[in-house]
Write a structure and sequence with these properties.
Helix 2 packs across helix 4 and helix 2 (38-49) crosses helix 5 (101-121). The chain has a domain at 29-114: Arc Repressor Mutant, subunit A (Orthogonal Bundle), CATH 1.10.10.10. It is mostly helical. It is built from 6 helices and 2 strands. Pfam families: MarR_2. One of its GO terms (biological process) is response to stress. Residues 6-146 form the HTH marR-type domain.
């Protein structure tokens, strides 16, 4: 299809991975005032922003982390009262994670701390550009999730 160059997806994947690393580094301290590590904040954010309460294995697959690593982070968040595990009608053992009111407040505070930074790093980008980029990545992620067996 692209005889002389890599497929455009290869370049996109490279940029996404590089951006992912930079975002993790840049946002790692947003939860420190609430005593959260960057990884804990990442799991809390995933739980708060989920369309449907996720399970630990779902979060692991979504973030590319092991179930065990996510379980340790989720346990710490439960212990701190930021999320809770509720029964899952679809599975006896894989409970769903939901944020508590305290968890939503911690998430909101971290977002507030990140607003100035986010505005600064996107100052020459329009909201429409960022929205279009997010939608493109969302569509690609959903296709990758549906096609979990590359040929």
């Amino acid at each position: 299809m692209f005889p002389d160059d890599d497929h455009p997806l290869a370049e996109l994947a490279d940029e996404v991975l590089r951006c992912h690393g930079r975002l993790l580094t840049a946002t790692a301290n947003l939860g420190t005032e609430d005593g959260l590590t960057g990884a804990q904040l990442l799991v809390l954010t995933t739980v708060v922003r989920a369309d449907r309460a996720p399970t630990v294995p779902q979060i692991g697959r979504s973030l590319g982390h092991s179930r065990q690593a996510v379980q340790r982070l989720a346990d710490a968040l439960v212990e701190r009262g930021l999320i809770e595990a509720v029964d899952n009608p679809d599975h006896k053992r894989a409970r769903r994670l939901v944020p508590t009111a305290a968890g939503r407040r911690a998430y909101d505070r971290s977002n507030a701390r990140g607003r100035d930074w986010a505005s600064r790093v996107t100052e020459d980008m329009s909201p429409a550009e960022l929205t279009a980029a997010a939608e493109t990545l969302r569509r690609l992620r959903r296709r990758l999730e549906a096609d979990d067996h590359p040929r």
